[in-house]
Amino acid sequence: MTPQPKTLVQIFKWPAIVTGLSLAGLVLALLIEGPADIATALAVGAPVIVIAWALLQK
Amino acid sequence: MRSGTIRGWAFVHKWTSLISTAFLLMLCITGLPLIFHDEIDAALNPEEWQAANPEGPRLTLDEILDIALANRSGEVPVYMSFDTERPVVNVTTAPSATASVSEMHFASFDVTSGDLVPPAAKGETVMDFILRLHTDMFLELPGTLFLGFMGLLLVAAIVSGVVLYAPFMRKLNFGVLRTEQSSRVKWLDYHNLLGIVATGWLLVVGLTGVINTLEAPILDAWRDTALADLIDDLASDEIATATASLDAAVNHARTQAPDMELQFVAFPGTDFSTRRHYAIFFHGASPATERIITPVLVDATSGASSGLRDMPWFVQALSLSRPLHFGDYGGLLLKLIWALLDIATIIILGTGLYLWVAKKQTGSVKSARPVAAKSA
C-alpha cells in the first residue's frame, strides 16, 4: 500500500525543532557563561545528535 | 508544489552549489584547524615565560610604545592591545598606518621590564597561511569580497535546498537512510538529512561569514557616519603625528567608560580610527556585552577628548559575527561540535557533487539508449 503523502507540517516538524534548538544554543552561548556552556553547546549540537540517531536506526 | 516551481528551485540549488562548492570546501577544510587555533598554539608552544619583575612597578604605555618603535625603525604604531592574563602589552607596527595586514609586525612586551616576550612561533606560519587562505586567498580585499559572494551563494543553496526537501520527503519518514538501495539513493538521503538538520547552523555561519567579509566597507561607513563630526581639516592623505601622551589619553578614556574593560588602541590613520585620533576601545564586562566594542576618541595631538562613541548597529553586527562564525566563544565542547558540523558540511558538499555527477551519468545513459536501439 502506498503511504499517504505527508503535509508540510509533518515534513518540517523535526527539522524546525532541531533548527530552533540549534539557533537558541548559538545565541544563549553568547549571552551566558559557566556550567550552562555545556547545555548551550549540546543545543547547538542537536543536528549531530539527530544524525547519530539516524545512523543507529539504519 | 507545481513541477515548474520545483524545477526553478532545483535550478537555483544546482547552480549556486556548483559555482561555490570548490570554494566552500576550501573554507570548510581551512576552517577546521582555525576552530582549534588557541589549542593548537598552546600545544605547540607550552607556556614557560615569566614576567621579569612580577611584583615590580609597571612601565607606562608611552614607554612601551617608545621601546616598540625603537625596535622597528621607520615604522609607525598601528594598534596596541592588552593581554588579559599576563602583564603583557602587544604593539602592532607597520611601514604606514594604512599598510595591509601582511605588512604589519606584531610584538609583545613585558610591562614590568620592557623586554620582548618570545612569540608563540611554532606552527604560526602554517596557521597564518591557513587564516589568509580562509579570509582572502592572499588577494586582499578583492579575495575577501569574492569569498563573501560565495557565502551568499551558499545561503541561496541552503534556502533552495530547504524548499526542495519537501517534495523529496513527501512519502518518507524524517531521518530515513535507505542504505540498502542504490548508491545514489543512499547518498541522496545522507545529503538531505545532513543538510536539513544543519540548516540553522549553516545559515548562521554562512551569513556571519558574509558579514565578516564586509569588515572594510563597514568600518569605512562607520568612520564616514558616526565619526563624521570628527573628520578634520587635514589634507586627504595626511595623518596626524601622535604627540599627545598615550597614557594620559587611556587614563582619561577609562574615566569615560568606568564599567567597561580596555581592549585595544587604534592609532591615527588606521581602519579603526580617524586620521587625527587615538581610538581607545573598551568592551562590556558581562557575557552579553563583552563582544560589543565602544571607543573613546582622543585627539592624538592636543589630547582633547571627544567622549564615548556608541557603535552603530552595523558595527555591532560585525562584532557579533566573528564569534558566531568561528565558534570560539563557548568552550571546548562547542568547538568540538563546531568541528563535527564543519565535517557534516564537507559531507553535504561532497554528496551534492556526487549526486550531480551521478545524475549526469544517468542522463547520458538514458539519452544514448534510443540511439543505440535505433542502430541495432
Plain-language structure description:
With 58 residues, chain A is an all-alpha fold. Chain A has one domain. Helices cover 78% and strands 0% of the residues of chain A. Chain A has helices spanning 8-31, 36-44, 46-57. The two termini of chain A are 22 Å apart. Chain B is an alpha+beta fold and 376 residues long. Chain B has three domains: 3-39 and 131-212 and 331-375; 46-119, Nuclear Transport Factor 2, Chain: A (Roll); 227-310, no CATH class. In chain B, 54% of the residues lie in helices and 12% in strands. Chain B has eleven helices and eight strands. Chain B has helices at residues 3-35, 37-44, 61-71, 124-135, 140-168, 183-197, 199-213, 215-225, 246-256, 313-326, 332-375, and strands spanning 76-82, 88-94, 105-110, 116-117, 261-266, 277-283, 293-299, 305-308. The longest helix of chain B has 44 residues, at 332-375. The interface between A and B is large, with 38 and 36 residues.
